[in-house]
TrEMBL record, chain A:
A Pfam cross-reference name: Complex1_LYR
Family under the similarity heading: Belongs to the complex I LYR family.
GO biological process: iron-sulfur cluster assembly
Name this protein carries in UniProt: Complex 1 LYR protein domain-containing protein
CDD domains in the cross-refs: Complex1_LYR_LYRM4
Coiled coil: none
Domain named Complex 1 LYR protein: residues: 6-61
Transmembrane annotation, as ranges: none
From TrEMBL, chain B:
Lineage of the organism: Eukaryota, Fungi, Dikarya, Ascomycota, Taphrinomycotina
Cofactors required: pyridoxal 5'-phosphate
Superkingdom: Eukaryota
InterPro entries according to UniProt: Aminotrans_V_dom, Aminotrans_V_PyrdxlP_BS, Cys_deSase_IscS, PyrdxlP-dep_Trfase, PyrdxlP-dep_Trfase_major, PyrdxlP-dep_Trfase_small
Reactions catalysed according to its record: (sulfur carrier)-H + L-cysteine = (sulfur carrier)-SH + L-alanine
Single GO molecular function: pyridoxal phosphate binding
Enzyme Commission identifier(s): 2.8.1.7
Protein name: cysteine desulfurase
The UniProt record lists the keyword Nucleus: no
Cellular compartments per GO CC: L-cysteine desulfurase complex; mitochondrion; nucleus
Amino acid sequence: MPKLVQPISLYRSLLRAAHSFSAYNFRDYALRRTKDAFRANRDLFGEARDKALQTGANELKRMKRQAAISGMYQTDRLVVEGGLEGKDKGGRARVKDQGWD
Amino acid sequence: MASYLRTSMSAVLRAPVRTAGVRGVARRAAPAASMGRRSYVTPTAPVKAQALEIDTEIAISPRAAETGHTLVIEKGEGNRPIYLDAQATTPTDPRVVDAMLPFYTGLYGNPHSRTHAYGWETDKAVEDARSHVASLIGADTSSIIFTSGATESNNMSIKGVAKFYSAKKKHIITTQIEHKCVLESCRTLQDQGFEVTYLKVKQDGLIDLAELEAAIRPDTGLISIMTVNNEIGVIQPMKEIGALCRKNKIFFHTDAAQAVGKIPIDVNEWNVDLMSISGHKIYGPMGVGAVFVRRRPRVRLEPLISGGGQERGLRSGTLSPALVVGLGEACKIAKQDLEYDHAHVSRLSKKLIDGLMSLEHVLRNGSPEQSYPGCVNLSFSYVEGESLLMALKDVALSSGSACTSASLEPSYVLHSLGLSDENAHSSIRFGIGRFTTDEEIDYVIELVKSKVNKLRELSPLWEMVQEGIDLNSIEWEQH
């Protein structure tokens, strides 16, 4: 009996994983792509819906792996990060013990 | 941009400002003094020679010295530029990296080893990647050859076809706005006895089909025209050119490095015989590319690299499964997300163009209708190009001259469009990609507007233009 994947919990997990990307561009893309994909597939049902949910579950695994790697190899923040909205609230530990300084 | 400054300024007022060490830096003892001779510079007394403690909240922007602004930024603000150079290269998509990593960890077999599982599994991965690349351009799987990049693919196609059919076909047609590798390949063929016609382009960057037809001779063997230009983004009329080539039985090669995965491509609809593909332009890894070599009707070419006969004998050498799988995954993602990415890039591009062309005397290079929206090349008149680039240090951009050479020669592509030297020097190429965000575009629009206005205010030519003087009518004094 295949495990039933609930769209809402999948959506929340994907967004949480997307937020954990350390790179600004990838983080923004992951959030945007997830939201747009769920919005586009909102009215699916039956086999197409299951297939889309399965794709989403695979993407979640990929995203978690890549977000972890993104955290291992960090670069400096972009000029636009936190710039227009104000001071970056932190919450994302920046470790620069490797790479270009 | 203004709100960004305001937040920084309020931070200045909040926290005690203790400037970084320009004042208290210990001066190095002059060597002469240590040798006992009198000099004008004496070492500072140790008491005064301490660098002052920098408050951890605030730092002077490293760019303050260059720009002349004492922009105090909060520590924790980034200084990494916004990336808007998608035509030079694109970031490797994390999904592509994920597909590649197994081949750098556990699956390390040589795909050409036929005798054990390590070889079979990497071979399967390579063949899957090949089918992904083929389906993106509407080709047969067996007609894709993996290479080290679009430069190798271009060299292989042009030199290979020319040399194979050199007995009867001695003429090649190409354009003046091709990539350097195509032009250089044609030049070496000229040295070897071939004749090459370099077609001029119209002012909007498109070729004239009548001119192309007139240039065709009975001994023309190959026509090479790039699909999307990397500097101005124009899309050539591929279907019409392909039909013309098929009618005259001439091989049609196209450098599609900037087009693959960005606009819909069908090699059968376009009657393309050879197509070059680049990995790092479609969010794949650097160091890999592919070439489509049509099998029906068969295109024969003399291989550039001889060896063990891999890749149908056309490109010997062990394939890197990781790179090839990366290219395959990039093509698979591009095929799935083609409309989505195109819609995103078009929206950002429209925003950027509307924002920047609201300034006066801004020209768009290349036809606005027949071009890929992700490549926007604008000339800002009466602004010196190098100073504009220096002012835009917060954004990673490319300009009209820096692209092709280290010298200050203006780009040959912009020259072919008929741009004057000054306008060619003041052109900037904005490259928008899948990962570009709305905030980045907003930031860039504000920054470019403010810098262009500031530079124009400093320019006496601009003053004259504002007064209505025609610059061409001025007789400059000879010194």
